[in-house]
Design goal:
Layout lengths: L1 H5 L8 H8 L3 H13 L3 E4 L5 E4 L8 H9 L26 H16 L3 H4 L23
Antiparallel strand pairs: 1-2
Helix pairs in contact: 4-5
């Protein structure tokens, strides 16, 4: 997603290019983009100049959306998941640590809600910013 944010506004990026930049297997990225596409965070374009691009500006994509699309509900323990599809623990009403796990979940979700994809990619690194070389010349500081 950081690679797509860097390239935002310059057209689709191929998974092969992203895999090379991030030193990741292309097959792994193919699995990730399925969930990202299902969450309407990326769209694909077919053809010789096709690939993937963000559906919205990096400033409009919260990191909590990205993490939920890739990992599922934000919950340190299943008993505090906010996903209605998961059953709750039978001990929730009298568990001595449930309150702690709820606070941990809320703190994590709050931190992720307060960050956008743009926070991971400073404006000076984004492709298309005047005077910058293509991404291949940029240091890779985030995956």
């Amino acid at each position: 997603m950081a690679q797509l944010a860097q390239r935002h506004g310059s057209g689709p990026a191929s998974l092969t290019e992203i895999a090379e930049q991030e030193d990741l297997p292309r097959a792994y990225l193919e699995q990730l983009v399925i969930n990202l596409r299902d969450a309407d965070l990326v769209r694909s374009t077919r053809g010789a100049h096709g690939g993937y691009e963000l559906t919205r500006a990096p400033e409009e994509i919260q990191m909590s959306e990205v993490l939920r699309a890739l990992e599922g509900p934000i919950a340190p323990m299943i008993c505090v998941t906010d996903d209605p599809g998961h059953s709750t623990c039978a001990r929730t009403g009298h568990c001595t640590v449930n309150f702690m796990w709820m606070r941990v979940r809320d703190a994590i979700a709050g931190a992720l809600d307060s960050m956008t994809l743009a926070d991971l990619v400073p404006a000076r690194v984004r492709l298309g910013t005047a005077g910058l070389a293509p991404l291949a010349s940029q240091p890779n500081t985030t995956n």
